[in-house]
Amino acid sequence: MKISAIKPFPVWIGHRNQLIVKVETDEGVFGWGESGLSGREKAVVGAVEHYAQFLTGRDPMQIAALWQEMYRSQYFEGGRVLQAAISAIDIALHDLKGKALGVPVYDLLGGKQRDVIPTFASTNSAEAGKMIEQAQALQAAGWTAIRFFPDFSDKGGVFEPREHIAKTARACTLAREALGDEVVLGIDWHHRLSVAEAASFCQKMPRATLDFLEEPIRDETPEAYAALRRMTDIPFAIGEEFASKWQFLPYIERDIHQFNRLDLCNVGGFTEGMKVAGWSEAHYVDMMPHNPLGPICTAATIHFSAAVANFAWLETRVNPSDLYGGGQTDDIFTVQPKLTGAVYPVNPAPGLGIEVNEAALTRESFKFWEAPHLKRRDGSVTNW
Amino acid sequence: MMKIRAITTYAVWVGTRNQLLVKIDTDEGVFGWGESGLSGREKAVVGAIEHYTQFLIGRDPFQIGALWQEMYRSQYFEGGRVLQAAISAIDIALYDIKGKALGVPVYQLLGGKQRNVIPTFASTSAPPGPEMIEQAQMLMAAGWTAMRLSPADHQSSGRYDPRESIPVTAKWCIRAREELGDAVVLGIDYHHRLSVAEAASFCQKMPRGTLDFLEEPIRDETPEAYEALRRMTDIPFAIGEEFASKWQFLPYIERDIHQFNRLDVCNVGGLTEAMKVAGWSEAHYVDLMPHNPLGPVCTAATVHFCAAVANFSWLETRTSPAEKLGFDNAEFFPVQPRIQNAVYEVSDAPGLGVEVNEDLIKQQSFKFWEAPHLKRPDGSVTNW
After folding, report:
1. Residue of chain A whose Cα is closest to the Cα of B107
2. CA separation (Å) from A58 to A1, A27, A244, A267?
3. What is the pTM of this model?
4. Helix or strand or coil: residue A75?
5. ipTM of the modeled complex
6. How many CB pairs under 8 A join A and B?
């Protein structure tokens, strides 16, 4: 079998762009992948164009060898744009290989380790009363692990960390009191704090208020995270932006993080994801994959979550209150993963088990989108 | 769903050693072969397999990763080389089954083939002296570009004094390098018989550039001792043939102690564990140089592993003009990996691509065998 075409579809679906990649073969079998570099999709499309030059005519079954070639045969190794492109191609090749062999993708990854995939859901209000109400609705719908957000609503483009820390800590404390001891509670700061700010936030809550702290600070300096690790006892959930095993390396080897937030559509696809998961297992770190994209990312991440030994919860942005919008995508993704309560079933259909209406997909177009360019009150740039 | 119907162990003498072969039968007639690598303690492994058989009968042979976890973790006492040698053989046999059931060679279940042939290193069998150099020249003439020498007195079955072996061995390594030229890769296997000080003295008796790898100079339960030796010599280390899990490899990989990874698929925990170790070795730019001293089932499994990993240098072979050990007896193994011009072919047959003459194997019997119980000149125990 030979790769005959690689087609990127960067299209606005619901409330964001999705960069879908289709790999076709001369035998008619094809595979779908998705790329995760939200906001810089055109760069990834350009990278996919480069890779398509030498992938056409190649054997799609030799996935790991093609991964090596895409990563290493260009002198400039790594980086998130190239890696986001590799991720989508790698996922599409797994879809294709599963279909060609008549097996679900998890059977290419050592087989299924769990029958369903537990998820965590997220609230979207930082106001204590509403946060608790949303969390109770999620609990009633079956969720046992819930993530909060600080108040990230638009304040005219201003984000001043110190204005949120005390408020958010109080809301989390009240939420723990209201929701009880059993539910797993965490919060995602979306890397908006400094080490000192993150330490102050943690120290304003009684111990055991939160079970995980996601991305309190930016992640290019493992030493900064190691410093924060000494200032708080809350387990860390880190890694959604990491674009290779090498970025995970210090976090895993120094036991900095306790939950691994790997994103299959950014880390380098299944090929890289399985290596990162394997070594996380050696450090007793559980996978808690990032999954904010479309149904193809979700399907791929379900197969990954089914196949790894060390797993906590998969992120889902779908929940009964539809807090995140996103809308219906069934017209484009005619077969896609659907939650049963708070878990995803594992689909035994060949490949990823998703179906795409390509005509409907082609009708959609790309919309340039920028993450909010946030400023501190003094006018300086701060992270979104 | 296919089900495991029976697990049969054959601990039999073939050639010049016992081989512990494991056959797994399924209710659909598909079966798989595995081999276990704990030479000298095979009966203990057979006992462990009896325990595992209790709960593996009736189970789905496709869920290899999950069964691995269950064998490793659902017994409270995790790890250890006897249990792991049992898991290794079972894991390999399950891969053979899965490949046959899907009609693909095992490498297709490990990410596909990364190389077309598997380069090997061969070993000289003569002790240091003119014959050793003649054997090396014979190997070079037969196509080998990497070879391993054996130290003085290593054939002894009674008395062994490291300090007597060191100067003779160093002298002949120097001579070998002079006679064989700069281009050939030369290493030596001290079979963990030296202390740190003895190993340092051995290395320091040779000019820089004499050896390209030093295999197992010292015992391996103390990574710190290896790190001390790492600071005393610049010869790359080849370590790991006895390691029975990723956790044993962990300090060697993470602290960059070894430069060649001598993983043994039949001891480390089969292909499931081997791929995790290989993945993280890749992150540290450490190449796999697998141990392969057993029978054709081990060789076949290791060939598939070598085909599938990105980071690879040479596979050990004990089949060469310099050694006749009889492990690859064609009457017992009518279809087995073929070596030509110092490389193994990669079989495209489904599963491992080996065939075992089970009737003949059944006629063979086990022979108790002890490694020589070596003594220092003062009568104290020293390692074989």
Report:
1. A62
2. 8, 13, 24, 23
3. 0.93
4. coil
5. 0.88
6. 96
